[in-house]
Design brief:
Keywords: Signal. It comes from Streptomyces morookaense (Streptoverticillium morookaense). This is Secreted protein. The chain is α+β, with helices and mostly antiparallel strands and 178 residues long. The protein has one domain. The protein has an eight-stranded antiparallel beta barrel. A hairpin with a 2-residue loop joins strand 2 and strand 3. The longest helix has 30 residues. The radius of gyration is 23 Å and the shape is elongated.
Length: 178
């Protein structure tokens, strides 16, 4: 009915159709999947945190393990720069900041954090930052970052003129397309 030439064309067309159906959903799901990262970071305060409120610059260097779908992990590192007006050992509220996440497989995400909420209990400071990915992977998507900080030195450093200059934290980062 089709002849040899018609059968080849039909088989090639079917193969291409099946291949495109199988690859398109995976590629689309990967491009729009939420990204979930967890890890640790070292944070420094300049000048150090004391009992007296003062404006403080914050710099952090996280190391993450990220997943965008089950069974797929990629490592990432980041740099964060921000500020905390009126910060002290008793209250550290971020005025926002900027994070650049570099993924081991290539690419990066630049995140601008515009809101923050923090609490301190028993020496552990918990901070939740919200913002948007402004450049790179996930551009336009919402980002939420949660940090639980433990002092890198004795809390008595808050009583010195130099103050508490470094802390270590567990960190979670979610980049969600919704």
């Amino acid at each position: 009915m089709f002849g040899r030439h018609g059968v080849r064309i039909s088989l090639c067309a079917m193969a291409l159709s099946v291949a495109s159906l199988g690859l398109a959903p995976a590629a689309q799901a990967h491009a729009h999947a939420p990204l979930s990262c967890s890890g640790e970071e070292s944070t420094s305060y300049t000048p150090g945190l004391t009992l007296e409120p003062r404006d403080v610059a914050i710099a952090a260097h996280p190391a993450y393990t990220c997943t965008d779908r089950p069974g797929h992990e990629v490592s990432a590192t980041g740099t964060i720069e921000g500020s905390s007006p009126g910060a002290s050992c008793l209250a550290l509220v971020s005025a926002g900041g900027r994070e650049v996440v570099h993924y081991a497989g290539g690419g990066e995400s630049v995140i601008r954090y515009t809101s923050a909420f923090g609490t301190r209990a028993l020496g552990v400071y918990t901070l939740r930052l919200q913002g948007t990915v402004t450049e790179g992977l996930g551009k336009g998507h919402r980002a939420v970052r949660s940090i639980q900080t433990l002092p890198g030195a004795l809390p008595t450093d808050c009583l010195t003129s130099e103050g508490l200059r470094q802390a270590f934290a567990g960190v979670e980062l979610e980049i969600d397309p919704s």
